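Archive maintenance. Older records in this collection stored only the sequence; we are now back-filling the structure field for every entry so that each record is complete. The fields below show one back-filled record exactly as it appears after the update. Entries are processed alphabetically, and Thiamine-phosphate synthase is next in the queue.

ARCHIVE ENTRY
Title: Thiamine-phosphate synthase
Organism field: Coleofasciculus chthonoplastes PCC 7420
Length field: 359
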Amino acid sequence: MSGYNGWIGQEPAVCRILDANLDRAREGLRIIEEWCRFGLNSVQMASECKQMRQELARWHSREIRAERDTPGDLGTELSHPQEEQRANIQQVLQANLCRVQEALRVLEEYGKLHSPNMGTACKQMRYRVYTLESQLLIYHRYQRLKRSQLYLVTSSSDQLLPTVEAALQGGLTLVQYREKGADDLVKLAQAQKLRQMCHHYGALLIMNDRVDLALAIDADGVHLGQQDLPIAVARKLLGPHRIIGRSTTNPEEMQQAISEGADYIGVGPVYETPTKVGKAAAGLDYVQYAAQQASVPWFAIGGIDPNNIHEVLGAGAKRVAIVRAIMQAEQPTLVTQYFLSQLTKEQHLRRIEAGIPQS
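Back-filled structure field:
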């Protein structure tokens, strides 16, 4: 091949491939950038998207654009049902991350025919997009965790899936799959269905105790009791992009969990509960301590129901975890909505008392 100018006239199809995929990558990056900018308020991630778009624009030369033939492109008529709908922001981001990664892979290969530097640049950018994907996943999970006020911890039930879905329909955004009695095959099957359901509704799914099952179903994280794996070991196995929670029953356990890197903690049991047989209630004093001292998100848990929720909120809780009051409810959607309304109301009152302007 004598040079680029000779090649450009001989290979218009390659130019059209480069043109289409440069457009595709830049469009996908712009969609991601808008969410980083307006949805996440992340200057760092938005700037990274913008920088990559500008780098691609420099490769999108006039010669490549000149071979564009939109009316003759059969691909404009191709579609797939999954492209016609998006259930939540995660699906929008995931679809466009995949779009960018695929386009960059095409540019990497066909770009070598244009310029060795183009192939190398697109390969390096593809790895930058993989890093951006991990950052977005971490950011989304932690933001969703911080915004979640109500945490459903499941218990054994013949109506497990319908009950959880009813709660999700009521606005629930955080679920922990806790099942002590079933064998692993049952747990795996139920957890897979719960993960699919939770992600459809934009909620997080946390696996109780089992790091292996959390990895197997690609859960958003794991919740560990005091007798489970150390947080450091779980983090090594799970990687940096999944959530790790720890149960605590007193100030010493709380401080240790935080120092070891727990992303959130359970505070309780506030009241005696059959879920924790033989465990004395930590009481409202521990809730008050957590309200003053906890530096990570925390959830009051243990025997909380519609009759005592106001005592727990009065002690300083902003988030609560519920088991029986939802899992055994005749109308889980309404009970979920009730808890959320009380949590939101309490938060609103605290903002007023603190003199924070209401949006």
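Update note: Residues 6-10 have pLDDT under 50 and may be disordered. DSSP finds 15 helices and eight strands in the chain.
Entry marked complete.
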